[in-house]
C-alpha cells in the first residue's frame, strides 16, 4: 500500500481560517493563494504570498484545510516542510513561514537564508 505523499506546505488552523476569510471577501475572483520566495533583502531571500486566480504552468497545488495553495515551481525545494501560520500581535497581524529549511533571518525578519531541501532517493 502506497503511503500518501507529504504536503509540500501546510497551513495552521489560524492561517487557513484567515485565508478563507480573505477569499470570502474576494467574491470568487481567486482560487487560493500563491506562495514562493524571491531573491533580495539583507539575508538573501524573502517569502512572497499573493492571490491566485488559477494555477500557472508547473505549479504544485496543495489543498489543506479547505484552502488551495499554489507553489511557485522555482520555490518548491525551498518550501518543502513549511507551515504557514497567521499570528496576531499588539501592533498588527501577519502570515509567518515556519520553514525547516531556513538557516538564518535578518533582524527585522523580512529576509531569510534558506537551503534547498534534499530529496531522498526512493
The string of secondary-structure elements, in order, is EHEEEEHEEEE
Strand proportion: 35-45%
Q: Which stretches are poorly predicted, pLDDT < 50 over at least 5 residues?
A: none
Q: How many individual domains?
A: 1
Q: Tally of extended strands?
A: 9
Q: Specify the structural class.
A: mainly beta
Instruction: Describe the largest sheet.
Output: 4 strands, mixed
Round the Cα radius of gyration to an integer and report it: 15 Å
Give the number of helices: 2
Widest sheet: strand order? 3-2-5-4
Query: And the CATH topology?
Result: Hypothetical Protein Aq_1857, Chain: A
Q: What is the second-level CATH architecture? A: Sandwich
Please give the CATH class.
Mainly Beta
Give the integer mean of the pLDDT values.
Answer: 84
Q: What fraction, in percent, of the residue positions are helical?
A: 10-25%
CATH homologous superfamily name?
A: HesB-like domain
Amino acid at each position: 500500500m502506497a503511503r500518501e505523499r507529504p504536503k509540500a506546505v501546510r497551513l495552521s488552523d489560524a492561517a487557513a481560517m484567515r485565508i478563507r476569510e480573505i477569499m470570502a471577501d474576494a467574491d470568487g475572483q481567486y482560487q487560493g493563494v500563491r506562495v514562493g520566495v524571491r531573491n533580495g533583502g539583507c539575508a538573501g531571500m524573502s517569502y512572497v504570498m499573493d492571490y491566485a486566480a488559477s494555477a500557472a504552468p508547473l505549479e504544485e497545488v496543495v489543498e489543506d484545510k479547505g484552502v488551495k495553495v499554489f507553489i511557485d515551481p522555482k520555490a518548491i525545494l525551498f518550501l518543502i516542510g513549511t507551515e504557514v501560520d497567521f499570528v496576531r500581535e499588539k501592533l498588527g497581524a501577519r502570515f509567518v513561514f515556519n520553514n525547516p529549511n531556513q538557516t538564518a533571518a535578518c533582524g527585522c525578519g523580512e529576509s531569510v537564508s534558506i537551503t534547498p531541501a534534499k530529496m531522498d532517493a526512493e
